[in-house]
Design brief:
This is Peptidase M60 domain-containing protein. Pfam families: M60-like_N (PF17291), Peptidase_M60 (PF13402). Keywords: Signal. It is a single chain. α5 crosses α7, α7 crosses α8 and α12 crosses α13. The chain has 15 helices and 17 strands. It has 459 residues and is of the alpha+beta class. 47% of the residues are buried. The strands form four sheets. The chain has a six-stranded mixed β-sheet with strand order 12-13-14-15-17-16. Strands 6-5-8-3-11 form a five-stranded antiparallel β-sheet, with no helix packed on it. β12, α3 and β13 form a beta-alpha-beta unit. It folds into two domains: 254 residues, Peptidase M60, enhancin-like domain 1 (Jelly Rolls), CATH 2.60.120; 126 residues, Orthogonal Bundle (Neutral Protease, domain 2).
Length: 459
């Protein structure tokens, strides 16, 4: 699989105002409501599995994506909105009623799915009022979502009734929707362009035509593997609930969407990951559970990268410590580093005795993969808990670092304290060109040398 051609590091800007939804009779859904629902649900909409696609839905306020981003020390905001199961056609109007159940704050309606279409890269966003709201779509329309977050203490809850103007979309719920129901929905809701699939940890959005062409695939398996990807990367990040800092993101799912934008192969940015039509099978078929799932593992990895130890040359490097964790969990062997012979350049680099070689130099052969080998050597030397604990320390300390030098220093010192070893020789062999004071700080920690020098390790 190719990896992302270009990656956004942008804030999502220019949110437009206007948006919303509607619902029709739901014959295709009746049977699936009797199926036992999965345990993991949405905190914003705790009744998601039983109310999505119905005319009355309730939503709880959560900590907003920015607050969670700071707590977890991440880069891109996570998906902070829930699907309604409805679509608003281009230029169409819909009417909804908002009832305040708790508190005073109200959610927003989003019309359109981030990155789904080139012509509508970001959705319309409209603030809701209590009582009746009439919402008109722009010339593109789109799926309808609800965002309900605050940087204060969450204390509000609303009930939204979809009165008119909205259209139902095909909805697949992991381990609940039957193959018969899915086929019926695809046939029945034929006037909408997109479908929604709901896992425990992901939302998948892609074209109705793709849903038709993959109608007989095992969607439960696909969603299970996407969920597993998320769970593995969170476990690798030490999100074990052992302290308030180590609770998982309250925005419990990430969006994977098909996109028609040819400028991107796969992309991860604020609120979503996206996959151009030609690359979409890696995310939306059984490919996600095997070697060719590296692309979505990689994109979801971007959503887990901690920023205090991601300096400027590591954007496409530390992301893959999460990809490798998923690869191991999926049982893919040998690892990508080994099967593509990525270790050769790394070991050659380490063997170079020059004291002026620079880990961050563009002259490093196979730089992205070679640098990744350095991070993998730390795991080989100190085990899975090394990165779990590094993530934990970073969340607790919330370091104020911004420059490459500050981030390198932080990573070096914390790697030593987390491993309990003096890693000076390791960092020098890799060409970490930092101020001499950093090595003095490491020496002052009074830690023993590693039992086995990590730079000698490979697969």
């Amino acid at each position: 699989m190719k990896i992302t051609l270009l990656r956004l590091a942008i804030l999502c800007t220019a949110f437009q105002t206007i948006a919303s939804c509607k619902k029709a009779a739901n014959p295709a859904e009746t049977a699936e409501k009797q199926v036992t629902q999965p345990a993991q649900t949405s905190a914003a909409n705790p009744n998601l599995y039983t109310t999505v696609g119905t005319n009355i839905q309730e939503f709880n306020e959560l900590k907003d994506a920015g607050s969670e981003n700071t707590r977890l020390q991440l880069g891109a905001y996570w998906t902070d909105f829930d699907p309604t199961g409805f679509y608003l056609a281009p230029n169409a109007s819909m009417q909804i009623t908002v009832q305040q159940l708790l508190g005073t704050r109200r959610p927003q309606i989003l019309i359109g799915t981030y990155s789904r279409y080139t012509n509508k890269w970001n959705p319309q966003v409209i603030n809701l009022n209590t009582g009746t709201n009439t919402i008109t779509a722009d010339s593109n329309g789109g799926l309808i979502w609800v965002r309900f977050g605050t940087n204060q203490t969450p204390n509000s809850k609303v009930r939204i009734t979809f009165n008119s103007g909205h259209q139902r979309v095909p909805i697949y719920i992991k381990n609940a929707t039957t193959a018969t129901s899915w086929a019926s929905q695809i046939a029945t809701y034929s006037n909408v362009p997109d479908v929604i699939l709901i896992g425990d940890r992901v939302y998948q959005v892609y074209s109705r035509s793709r849903a038709q062409s993959t109608q007989t695939q095992d969607n439960n398996y696909v969603l299970a593997k996407a969920d597993q990807t998320m769970n593995v990367q969170e476990a690798f990040s030490g999100l074990d609930g052992s302290a308030p800092q180590h609770q998982r993101n309250v925005n419990s799912r990430l969006l994977l969407t098909e996109t028609d934008n040819p400028d991107y192969w796969m992309v991860a940015t604020y609120y979503r990951t996206a996959y151009v039509t030609a690359a979409a099978p890696a995310a939306f078929t059984s490919m996600i559970g095997g070697q060719d799932g590296w692309g979505p593992w990689h994109e979801l990895g971007h959503m887990h990268q901690q920023q205090p130890w991601k300096w400027s040359t590591l954007g496409e490097v530390t992301v893959n410590i999460y990809s490798l964790a998923v690869e191991r969990a999926m049982g893919v062997t040998p690892s990508r580093l080994k099967r593509e012979n990525k270790w050769a350049a790394a070991l050659t680099w380490i063997a170079n005795p020059s004291t002026t070689k620079d880990f961050n130099s563009s002259s490093m052969a196979g730089d992205v993969w070679t640098r990744l080998c350095m991070f993998e050597q730390l795991r080989l030397a100190f085990g899975e808990n090394f990165y779990k604990n590094l993530h934990k320390v970073t969340r607790v300390e919330q370091p104020a670092v911004s420059t490459d030098a500050q981030k390198m220093r932080y990573f070096m010192l914390k790697s030593c304290t987390v491993s309990g070893r003096n890693l000076t020789n390791f960092f020098k062999k890799w060409g970490f060109q930092v101020d001499a004071s950093v090595y003095t700080e490491i020496a002052n920690l009074g830690l023993p040398q590693p039992v086995v020098e990590p730079s000698t390790l490979s697969e």
